[in-house]
Write a structure and sequence with these properties.
6-stranded mixed beta sheet, homodimer, 146 residues, 4 helices
Chain lengths: 146, 146
């Protein structure tokens, strides 16, 4: 059995973010990749939708400029022939402040010939924003919860 | 081929939320279900972790008391033998204010003998909070994005 594309992609991604080694990840992204990290792009300009390998590599470089991955735990994973989904828990360090950030992430990927062609990532964004701000945002309690 | 447990569960869940018909969903949840909807529980007390069928049915009743599902689109879906993951886009109405809420959700489910035993749901929570508040939360731009 050959290794699933997810594992190779995941290793290359973390090597790019932590070691600024971008050669491996470059070969694992399709020229026509369709990519979206959902979240508040006003605060984190590297979030949002991107089309094409060049734009996606640029996002990965920006993430590498801002965060270090201390550890990640894959809580759930589903593997298809050319697809994968997982729920992960990341422990990051924000490089500008040296602050720890802990984050839950859901990720859906599709591959073609071993290269990433589609990526959708959802983050517990409110939790992320509060940690990045370094303070809680006051929220009213919603009513009608009988 | 028999129908995947996900489709039966999804129909029953939406019938519970929109029509307050809880009989079907009751039969599709395992007594020992392990359940978590990640998000700000201060604002939405029905979010968070729950153990057991009784606690989960209570959550579904609270969601039914607060929201109506206008439509949902399953953007991505992966089906395993007894598992399923999907990324969905929900259009809800908040019942207390009659306000529309549009929401992206990632959901990972596991079934045993057709009954739900594990559910993990991640929501684009910052987007949810802003819509529930009815106003944007001002965010500073993160630096070091070269």
């Amino acid at each position: 059995m050959t290794e699933h594309s997810l594992w190779r992609f995941s290793r290359a991604l973390h090597r790019a973010i932590n070691d600024r080694h971008f050669e491996d990840i470059e070969t694992l992204i399709d020229e026509d990749v369709d990519w979206a990290l959902y979240g508040p792009i006003d605060m984190f300009p590297f979030l949002g939708a991107r089309q094409g390998k060049h734009a996606v590599l640029d996002v990965i470089r920006q993430i590498a400029n801002n965060f270090h991955v201390r550890r990640f735990d894959r809580e759930t994973v589903m593997l298809g022939i050319d697809s994968a989904s997982s729920m992960l828990r990341y422990s990051l360090t924000a490089l500008d402040s040296d602050k720890p950030i802990s984050l839950r992430v859901a990720q859906f990927a599709r591959f073609r010939a071993g290269r990433l062609i589609n990526m959708r990532v959802l983050v517990d964004t409110f939790d992320l924003v509060e940690q990045a701000l370094g303070r809680p945002i006051h929220l009213p309690k919603m009513t009608r919860l009988g």
